[in-house]
Every structure is written in structure tokens, then in C-alpha cells.
Amino acid sequence: MDLLLDGFQTALTPENLLFALIGVLLGTAVGVLPGIGPAMALALLLPVTYSVGVDSAIIMFAGIYYGGMYGGSTTSILLNTPGESSSVITAIEGNKMAKSGRAAQALATAAIGSFVAGTIGTVLLWVLVPRVADIVVTLGAPSYFAVMVLAFFAVTMVLGSSKLRGFISLFLGLGIALVGTATGQARLTFGNAQLADGIDVVVVAVGIFAIGEALWVAAHLRRKPLEIIPVGQPWMSRDDWKRSWKPWLRGTAFGFPFGAVPAGGAEVPTFLSYATEQKLSKHPEEFGKGAIEGVAGPEAANNASAAGTMLPLLTLGLPTTATATIMLLALQSYGIQPGPQLLTNEPALVWGLLASLVIANALLLVINLPMAPLWAKLLQIPRPQLYAGILFFATLGAYTANFAPFDLALLVALGLLGLAMRRFGLPVLPLIVGVILGPALELQLTTALQISDGDVSTLWGEPVAVAVYAVIGLMLVAMAVGAVRGRRTPAAPATPTENDETEELVNR
Amino acid sequence: MHRLLALLIALALTVLAAGCGVTRGADDPDNRRLRMFIPNSPGGGYDLTGRAAARAMQDNELTGRFEIRNIQGASGTVAMQRLLNEKGSDDLMMVMGLGVVGAVYTNKSEATPLKMTPIARLVEEQEGILVPAHSPFKTLADLVEAWKKDPGKVTVGGGSSPGGPDHLFPMQLADTVGVAPKDVRYIPYDGGGPLTTALLGEKIDVGMSGLGEFESQIEEGKLRVLAVSGDERLDGIDAPTLTEAGVDLIFTNWRGVLAPPDISDAQRTYLTDLLTEMHATKEWKEALADNGWSDNFATGQEFEDFLVEQDARVADTLKELGLA
């Protein structure tokens, strides 16, 4: 506890507070700009570490990391343009909320959810950093594969009202995900080296969401009267709070462990959180049309996973994300080796960092919450100009992901695909899920089978994997029971909503 | 003062990140701008090498400012293709290394290193052979014995995809000790982090990689180094070289600088002199020490011969594996 107080003393010096503030602002900025992620921002700032103290640099970096996680949600909600793959899910419900005049509430629940999750995550770090040792490394490819299967299974529940359309979209996504180099062999690259690393998920998300949407709106601009987006309340209502707090906590519970284990990442927990909230919500009919739970849960999940990432980084010197890798490099440039001895050798640094994470979170909330109604006003811009702006940001984002003109051609092609999907009423979420989860699933399966020399039984050779398969089995049983019961009760309430949703999909 | 400066740099970078740069008059020789291609992402090995070199040159005012571009894709093949397309451009250099030589083959690209203008070799890093603390392999001889007996029983992990240094090293090592490279069970991981995890969790038997990312685990005794791959022992690592351990192989992961094809002799001399001056600076020496790189500076005919030799060796290995 004394150490923690010392940590706050380190983090609360005016100078370090300033660095935290700069970090948070920078992070929010790079999060808002699609394509420039926190990893790239940190890499560009690495030279700064040569001239400032290690505590200031790390505190600033942590601010950038958290800020980036938060900033990504702003463009997702307002412009349907996710800046990072972990805020893709936020765009689904968040943008729908924005369009029905609830942008301020969506931004607020994202901000508060991020704060709650980030704070709980950091407290968990305080508790776990000194204790947790080598548990996380016992998870191998079979366990990760099982978790990916679970994620896939969970998202088939969010396929939308038409299972057929949902699966078409999912397989389109898996098809896009096949492009690239697997086990040393080029696949579906058509001899083009630009495709050898696969298609960047940011390019896919921006193309399908933002460009597809802009084209769709443009195609209907003359035919349909302009819908005026209602202004709505500036703050969250009591009901919004009531519907948000549980998803925040559940999202945190999903996000933190995924951040903490080496191959977890921030995307899978957002999917799981979304699927869970849809299942548990008292208003399942609102999902796909702007349910606040669908913003609150995934946003909390992605911030909690950012906090979780610090755990293996500080305790084992294991970076689990690109951003964490660069933070590791920064520490090494000061001659500090993260690892089990870090806490003994550099207690001031570690506790200072942990304290500054809380401060960064609080700063983010203070900065972003009052901004929410202001941001929401952005949507009052007349549509032609608004969508011109979206196109500009989307193109910039796709270009800055790799600085490759080739990506722009891909972006246009994917935008056309997005337009076609809207025309034929295909939901876009399963496609994105396929693009993100497909390669992860394949990688874990390949690694597991390479290690076992093709012996399939390795897939259930780890306790965690067995437990996860048991959960999937239980879910299957529950679904089967539910289906049988549903058949027995006549006049199922699902029918009218189903029609609504299909109509919604077509009208979009 | 330093901190204020850092703040200003941070702010300036914010502006840069927003996409606005300031260009100065290009006619003034002091303002001469050089471009540098980096074939991987910010923070990667080529990136650190290239940016350290550019910094050393700029801080000593050996030349004007550098415009550094990270061109990612296919482990450097995309950047090599760009370099080939820039035929004759006299303001460009590109950082590359062993991994790029391999990637060009695995991607079946035409933009091979031998078509470019060699400028200089800058640094090298040794590979290490790592095992978990409780591994039955106590020495390199133990590993070689088990490997020869049944290559399929030994899982070898590395931090690079096929064609990269961590893949080429075990293949050439296997070839040297009499194991067919085709029989080696190589499992690629996405860099040092995931490889460390796999080793600590004892998911694989052996890991082959540069040792920079493993220092703390080695220091704590969680991972052991059976041998290092260079011609001299590494400071701070208690392990023999391959030659000392009875295997006749020297293998290093090197990085250097190429220029586009068909540049003038004068330009080639200018770039070579520039890097030679850079090599002598204090900043570069510091960068070598900070990053744990070994100096293996070479220019002219020496580097050219070296490239030819490396290219042939990589081609041999990959062809035998059916990857080139």
C-alpha cells in the first residue's frame, strides 16, 4: 500500500501529470484517426525516450495506449468508421444510436464504461502483478483454438434474423481472411506481393462500414427525403445508467483475462461481450437498432483488455500486443528489462506506472464526457457534407494503416461490396467477425497441429481447452432445450420482430 | 531543458501524425533531402537500425534531413519492388538484411538484392539456441544427438516466418549436423514475445532467435542458451559458439543498406562515404551498444561479395525445402 502511495506521488508531480495529459490527448487523437493506431504513435515517439526520464516516458505511453483505446470508439459511434479493430463492434450499435439522436448517450456510456473497466482492470493489476507468476504461459495453442471456437460459436447467435444471410456474410469474411501467406505458402494473392500479408482488417472495416454506407446514402440521397437526426437528450438518463452498469462489469470480466493471456487480444472479448449482452438484454429487439448495452459492454471489454496487457508485460516481460512490444522497447532503451525481477528492481517505476494508469483513465473521462454532446452535434452537419467528411477520414485512415496506395484500391472494392451487402440485406457484422477471427483460428490450429505432428487429440489435451469445450456443449444443450420449448409455445413473439428486422436491413 | 525539448518533439510529432509536414527549399545543398525505405513496421529491427543510422547522420550534420518511409508487406518484398522501380533515383537508400533476402525467394519476387546497388553492411546479431530450464538438452551435443535420432521428435520454434533468419538458421544448422532440413519440424511464431511464451510453457523443445528479447528470462535461469551462432562468444551469455561446441557453422542475422539499381558511380561513392562517416560517429557507437548489435561494417567489393554469397546460401536452403 505504501508502495502504491509512492506510486501516486511519482505520477502526480506536475511534470508527470503533464506527460499523462499529453499522452491522453495524443492517444485520443490517434484513436480518432482511423488507421493510425497507438502502436504506430508510440513507435514514432520512441526517440522521445532518449531525452526524458523513464517514468515520464512510460506514463505518457500508458496515456497514449488508453487514449487510443477510447478515441477509437468516437469515430465508430459518430461516423461508423472504426479506428481500430477492437472498436469495430462499437460501431454496430453505437452508430445506430447516433442516428436515432442518441449519440451523446452512446459516447457517454463508452466513456464511463472505459473508465470503469480501465479502473477495475488497473486495480486487478495492483492485486495481481505482485502475485501472478507463470500461469499465463501454460496456455498453449489448443486452449486458444478452443477459445476461438467459442467466439465463433457465440457470434453465430448474432448472425441476425436471417441465418442464411448471416452465414453468407460470415463466409464472405472468412473468404477475405484466406488471402495471405499461410505456413510459408502464398494463398489467393494472385502473385501480388501487396497481398502477401493478407488484407488489413482496418481497411476491411472502413471499406465495408464507412465507404459502403456513404455509397448507399449517396445512392438514395435524391430519392429519399432527408431524415433529420433528432437532437435528443445530452446526458444519459436513469434508464441508460440502469442498462449500462451491468454490461460495463461483464465487459470488464471478458476483457481483462483476454488482455492478460499472451494470445488473447482485444477483439475476441468485444465479440463475446456483444453476444452475451444480446442474450441477457431485456430489450433484445433493440439490438441492431442501437441498444446501449451493445456499446457499453464491448467498450468496457476493450479497455479492460488494454489494462490486462500490462500484466504479462510487467511480470514476465512478455508483450502481447504491438503496442506493448513498443513499450517494452522503450523500457529496454533505458536499460530496464521487464520480467519477474522488475518489481524488485524498479518498484518506483512499476507503481508509478500503475498509479498513472488510473490517472490517465480519470483524465480521459474528464476530457471526454463534457465533449460528448459537442461531438454529437457533428451529426447535424447536412448529409452531403457529412458523408464527404466521412469519405475523407475513411480514405485517410485506410491509407495510413500501411501507407500503400494499393490499399485505396482495395478500399474502393470493399466499399462496393459493402454497398452490395446493404442492397441485398446482408448484415455486415458477421463478415468483420470472419475477417478477424478466421486467421486467428487458423493460426492456433496450425500451430497446435504442427507441434503435435498432426495428432488431432492435442486439441483437447489442455485443461483449459476441455473446460471451454464443456461450456460450448452446455450452450448447445441450452439452445436445443430453448428451441424445443419455443416450439411448444404457440404465437412466439419472435415473428413480428423478425419482420421488422428484415425490413430494417433492406431499408438501411 | 531536455524535457522541454522532448515536449516540443512530442508536439511536433503530433502535428506530423496529423499529416502535415513542412518542406524546405531543396536547392540548398545543406537542405539536401535523402529518402530511406524501411521494409517493416515502426519498432521492428530494420526500423530501429535505419532510424538510428539516420539520427547519427542528422545529428552530426553529415547530410540534410531524412525522409523515412516504412513500406510494409511480404517481409520486405514490397519495399524491394519499390526500390527496383526507383531505378536510377539518386536520393534513396533502403535498409535490408538476411530476412529480406529470404523473403524475396519465398515470395518469388523479381526484385532480388543482387539487382540493387550495394552500399554497406551495418550490423549483425547472433542467433541463440534456447531451451526451457528443465529441458533434457544440457548441451548442444545432446540436442544434435536427439535430433539425428528422430528429427520429427524435436519441435523447433522461431520468431520469423519461413525464409526469415530464425527459420534459415535451424535449417542450415540441421544441414550441417546431418539432419535433412526437410525433416526439421519448424513452428513459426509472430516474433520474440509469442516465442518466449511457447518456450516458458514448454510447448516446444527448442527456440532459435536473436537473444535481445530473452535477456531477462536467461538472466533468471528460466531459459538456457545451448550455443550462439557467431564466431565469438556473446558478452554476458554463458554459452559456447557453434564452432566451440563442435559444429562447423557460423550464422549471423545481418542488416545493411542498398540503393536502387543503375545509380551513378558518383552517387554510389557519396552514399558509401556518408555511411562510412556515420559509422565513425559517437551516436552510432551508442546505438550499437544500446541495442546489443555487433558492428560488422563493410562496403564496396567486400559487401558485394558477401551479398552474392548470402544470396546463394539462402537460395540453396530454400530450394531444398521447396520454398523457392
TrEMBL record, chain A:
Signal peptide: none
Top-rank taxon, per record: Bacteria
Region (Disordered): 489-508
Bias (Acidic residues) ranges: 498-508
Keywords of this entry: Membrane, Transmembrane, Transmembrane helix
Residue spans crossing the bilayer: 17-36, 106-129, 141-160, 167-186, 198-219, 313-336, 348-372, 384-402, 431-452, 464-484
Name this polypeptide is given: TctA citrate transporter
Protein's organism: Nocardioides simplex (Arthrobacter simplex)
